[in-house]
Amino acid sequence: MSAGPASGRTPGADGLGALDAFGFEAAAIVLGPEGARASAGDLEKVRPLRSVSKTLTGFACAIALERGAVALTDPVGPVGSTLRHLLCHASGLFYESDRVLQEPGKRRHYSNRGIDVAALHVARAVGRDFEDWVAGEVAEPLGMERLSWDGPPSVGAFAPLADLSLLALELLRPTLLGPEVFAQMTTPQLPELVGIMPGFGKQDPNPFGLGFEVRGTKCPHWTGTTSSPETFGHFGMLGTAVWVDPVADLAAVIGTDHEFCDSHRELLPRLSDDILARWSPPAR
């Protein structure tokens, strides 16, 4: 499968016309299972992934789960918390510290610290530095040659969209995980939990998988109004995003050079809807 840029772009005809409305640098790749269907902008620029890093971290943790090195029931984090709680933002940990806000499993409290503690637990279990684990078990098999880290597992990854698109392709047709663990990673864990979605306010419910956000019925949201509830992925506060819609059998990776702002809130959903309108298979 190729994730290289599509050629012969006619503005708007490929579902990417909304990129021109951002008012700052923006780029994207649309993918089907066979590879790139459309692209625009700078796909080779190395970008800070920020919270999109959580998709790589969640995937690497899921590989450890698949191998039997860890279990979702492992006690880790605050008293009563498990690896599952940490990876789905239900451990009760504060955003970026070990302060505990509530007991585990009561609310979806988004926590970078929880993801970092989960990664540390996996690193100890596999006997390798977590960055090395991601490189060897995720980046190298997928060909993500320019993935690098300068920060914690929750927010510290850097990569160009061309490399991020290789992860999106894997998420459309998984080869590194079996179906059971892949489903756990990309479908709601403790699905009834309410919580705050950063940038979009309170969501009831606020579903997350293992390192991946799940769209569900959230409104407002950064994916499209026509995105299926099964859509999963993540966005980052420095303007990068990845989503996979398993119903439409499509994925997209998006990058901008601007911190998350009102333009992203308005245009990311429009971009998703345009992509789905252009590239979704005809209704049967």
From TrEMBL:
Q: Report which superkingdom the organism of origin falls in.
A: Bacteria
Do you know which InterPro entries this protein is assigned to? Beta-lactam-related (IPR001466), Beta-lactam/transpept-like (IPR012338), Diverse_Enzym_Activities (IPR050789)
Where in this chain does the record put each Beta-lactamase-related domain? Answer: 48-254
- Known PANTHER family for this protein? BETA-LACTAMASE-RELATED, CONSERVED PROTEIN
Official protein name in the record = Beta-lactamase family protein
Q: Which organism is it from?
A: Brachybacterium halotolerans
